[in-house]
């Protein structure tokens, strides 16, 4: 190993560990840089080409987690290995385990270090070799595409369509339940593509009264209505060369629909109260959480407009159909709200995470974000079952149409009892009338 002249940056406030890792790496033929603080590490990162970051977590001034977050953002391709001397501080570890970062617990042997370093490099190579990483150089990792997080097949389908449309001006319709990330997808189409310097303008067709929406979108001529003392151009023109995002397009009135059709078809707009046509040049992205096609069938939405909007269609899947992404999202929100409210990354217990995995998330990612935000505020160091809102908690509902295997009912019931006893296993075993050993096995 080390034949490729990889440079490793080691960060630890403990000089002994720093030296130890340095010497080991030397014997593996790596060239290493040493830093005793995050500040030093940042300076080295700036000036040198680094291929692997090895860092301690607990350091006096700025802690390693913040360095990791910084690196994830600014050097997304750089593999990271955490060496921690505090295996009991499982809050940080939990976060790491669920994320894409490898870690090693002190004290470790030379061989363990060698394995961990090799693994970090190997994973990184895989990452670089994958087609997604190649087509998507801005994001680097294959779990993040711009701001969009996810590793599920479902989200990969979304990002591969974004890759195909981001550099052209095809009209895109985004479908998806509330809170699934439709607006984020729209922003990604715009900001990942080559027109990203031009404006992105979002307008919610459901939130603005019809007459106002028309004037907003298309502008108005002087004297078009009382109060129109000067002519004004609309959002179609404000978004020139960029993207106009028509959110909740299903709520547009028939009058607005016919004007939208004209704008898309003829690539021109007419100000309210004017006769003059004006050329426009932009991309339109529309979003809806209602089934537009059935609205077309019911005569509530113009069919011709529907076809103009669906040149490319992106269906954003609900969170319950991509539970693989849930852990990544939880991780992101724990870091975000942990740093915001507690000045550090907050972790989550296995029970609590399990409950999140089993809930069906009608409000999708927005609901998840809200739950994590609240729970971070309510918890001490770690989010436990007791910090999660009641509506997530198991209800065994026998009138439910779904027929569940006994094992599932057992699992749900055990969790319910554990929760009710504040995770007191002796008490739970007593209630369940099984011994503690059996309970432990079942929990596993
Ligand atoms: N894949 C994702 N990765 C990270 N964050 C996400 C992802 N998808 C959604 N979010 C976050 O979830 C929240 C809701 O997303 P967004 O507003 O785009 O949803 P929406 O589908 O437009 O919802 P609505 O139908 O209610 O308008 C936002 O805070 C967004 O940043
Ligand atoms: Mg939205």
UniProtKB/TrEMBL annotation:
Q: Where is the Sigma-54 factor interaction domain?
A: 148-377
Q: Which residues carry this modification: 4-aspartylphosphate?
A: 56
A family per Pfam: HTH_8
Q: Where is the Response regulatory domain?
A: 7-121
Q: Which GO terms describe its biological process?
A: phosphorelay signal transduction system; regulation of DNA-templated transcription
Q: What SUPFAM superfamilies does this protein map onto?
A: CheY-like, Homeodomain-like, P-loop containing nucleoside triphosphate hydrolases
Q: Which UniProt keywords apply?
A: ATP-binding, DNA-binding, Nucleotide-binding, Phosphoprotein, Transcription, Transcription regulation
Q: Which GO terms describe its molecular function?
A: ATP binding; sequence-specific DNA binding
> Which parts form a coiled-coil structure per UniProt?
none
Descriptive protein name: DNA-binding response regulator
């Amino acid at each position: 190993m080390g034949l490729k002249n990889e440079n490793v940056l080691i960060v630890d406030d403990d000089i002994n560990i720093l030296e130890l890792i340095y010497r080991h790496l030397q014997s593996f033929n790596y060239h290493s840089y040493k830093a005793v603080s995050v500040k030093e590490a940042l300076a080295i990162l700036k000036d040198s080409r680094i291929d692997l970051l090895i860092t301690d977590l607990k350091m006096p001034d700025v802690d390693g987690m913040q360095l990791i977050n910084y690196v994830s953002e600014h050097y997304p391709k750089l593999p990271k290995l955490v060496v921690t001397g505090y295996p009991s501080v499982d809050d940080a570890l939990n976060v790491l385990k669920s994320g894409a970062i490898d870690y090693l617990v002190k004290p470790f042997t030379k061989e363990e270090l060698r394995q961990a370093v090799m693994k970090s490099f190997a994973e990184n190579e895989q990452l670089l070799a994958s087609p997604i990483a190649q087509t998507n150089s801005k994001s680097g990792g294959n779990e993040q595409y711009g701001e969009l997080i996810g590793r599920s097949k479902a989200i990969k389908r979304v990002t591969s369509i974004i890759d195909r449309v981001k550099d052209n001006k095809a009209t895109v319709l985004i479908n998806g339940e509330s809170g699934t990330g439709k607006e984020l997808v729209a922003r990604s189409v715009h900001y990942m593509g080559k027109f990203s310097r031009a404006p992105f303008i979002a307008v919610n067709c459901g939130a603005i009264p019809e007459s106002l929406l028309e004037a907003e979108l298309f502008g108005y001529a002087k004297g078009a209505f009382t109060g129109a003392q000067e002519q004004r151009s609309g959002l179609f023109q404000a978004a020139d060369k960029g993207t106009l995002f028509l959110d909740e397009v299903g709520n547009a009135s028939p009058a607005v629909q016919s004007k939208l059709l004209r704008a898309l078809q003829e690539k021109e707009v007419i100000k309210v109260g004017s006769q003059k046509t004006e050329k426009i040049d932009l991309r339109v992205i529309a979003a809806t959480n209602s089934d537009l096609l059935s609205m077309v069938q019911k005569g509530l939405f113009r069919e011709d407009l529907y076809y103009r909007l669906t040149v490319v269609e992106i269906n954003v899947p609900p969170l319950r159909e991509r539970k693989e992404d849930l852990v990544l999202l939880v991780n992101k929100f724990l870091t975000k709200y942990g740093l915001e409210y507690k000045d550090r990354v907050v972790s989550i217990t296995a029970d609590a995470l399990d409950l999140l995995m089993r809930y069906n998330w009608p409000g999708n990612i927005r609901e998840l974000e809200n739950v994590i935000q609240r729970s971070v505020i309510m918890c001490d160091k770690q989010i436990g079952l007791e910090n999660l809102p009641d509506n997530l908690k198991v209800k065994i509902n026998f009138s439910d149409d779904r027929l569940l295997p006994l094992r599932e009912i057992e699992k749900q019931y055990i969790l319910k009892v554990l929760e009710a006893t504040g995770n007191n296993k002796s008490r739970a075993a007593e209630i369940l009338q099984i011994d503690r050993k059996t309970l432990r096995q079942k929990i596993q």
